[in-house]
Specification:
single chain, Arc Repressor Mutant, subunit A, Rossmann fold, seven-stranded mixed β-sheet, two-stranded antiparallel ribbon, 11 strands, binds nicotinamide-adenine-dinucleotide
């Protein structure tokens, strides 16, 4: 029976289920990849984006401080993250940008070819299908599916929408590796089951529902409202901390002194 899987979205403590590294990689590299915390995996993807931009600008080497600043993390955390990749840089020189890119790509499983199917070509599905950022980062969209007869055959982002009934055959034929679910929640499990029947092992789920999948399938759930709740939590916590800093005589450090000093 399908198991309910961890579908965390913001990366907490448990080790991430990183896709296997390519066949030529040694077992030690696989072990290393399995031990990387999920939050570090998310940061590695950010470093990769920053490094790719630098490589395009012709940057050859970069210090950990420069890369940390560009990625918005502190340099101690960056060095720790890069140690998971097995990359320690050269003292006084820093990291070779191209080497670091290929090391992170290998750990993230990006040396494998990926191909994406988007299911549910409504508001969200249209935006995702039209987004040019996926192909340029190694995730070309290969197929679109919907149930609405008005949409079937209509190209979105240059790819014609196919009927959901053909999803298994088309996913197998086009070797789809990642299925993106952007359907109403009531049909998301059925869509997920069909993707899995079509050989898809990675599911990115936007529908507000927990999906059951077999053990060999990975699911990530994206929920922007949860991200906003997390932002709200951090702002509220900061406000609480500022309130707690009010001194016993009622003055607020850094605020009332400034007023008194005027
Ligand atoms: N995670 C987030 O932050 C986030 C943000 C926006 C929307 N959503 C979710 O994404 C989903 C899509 O939202 P939307 O605004 O694009 O909805 P929408 O109604 O505009 O689009 C849904 C599409 O799914 C299609 N569909 C319905 N049943 C189908 C099936 N069995 N197989 C294939 N396609 C089917 C519909 O024909 C329609 O084109 C919803 O579940 C919504 O809650 C999530």
């Amino acid at each position: 029976m399908a198991a309910q899987r961890d579908q965390g979205h913001n990366g907490d403590q448990p080790p991430a289920a990183v896709p296997d590294v390519s066949a030529r990689d040694v077992p030690a590299a696989r072990e290393r990849a399995r031990a990387i915390p999920e939050a570090a995996v998310a940061r590695l993807a950010v470093y990769l984006r920053v490094l790719s931009g630098m490589a395009e600008d012709g940057v050859g080497t970069i210090s950990s401080e420069e890369l940390a600043a560009a990625a918005g993390v502190n340099s101690a955390k960056l060095r720790k993250d890069l140690s998971y990749v097995g990359s320690y840089g050269t003292r006084g020189v820093g990291y070779d940008v191209d080497v670091l890119i290929s090391e992170i790509e290998r750990i993230l499983g990006l040396t494998r070819k990926h191909s994406v199917a988007v299911v549910g070509i409504g508001n969200l599905g249209h935006a995702l299908a039209n987004y040019g950022g996926f192909p340029s980062r190694g995730f070309p969209v290969a197929a679109l599916f919907d149930v609405d007869s008005d949409l079937i055959g209509v190209p979105v982002g240059g790819i014609p929408v196919e009927h959901i009934d053909d999803i298994e055959a088309i996913c197998r034929d086009r070797e789809v590796t990642i299925g993106v679910i952007a359907t109403p929640p009531a049909v998301a499990q059925d869509v997920c089951d069909r993707l899995v029947s079509g050989g898809v092992q990675c599911i990115l789920n936007f529908a507000p529902v927990v999906l059951g999948v077999p053990d060999h399938v990975e699911v990530r759930k994206v929920d922007l409202a949860v991200e906003m709740q997390i932002l709200s939590f951090h702002v509220a916590r900061r406000a609480d901390e500022a309130q707690a800093e009010v001194t016993v005589d009622g003055t607020r450090p850094g605020v009332d002194e400034a007023v008194v000093g005027r």
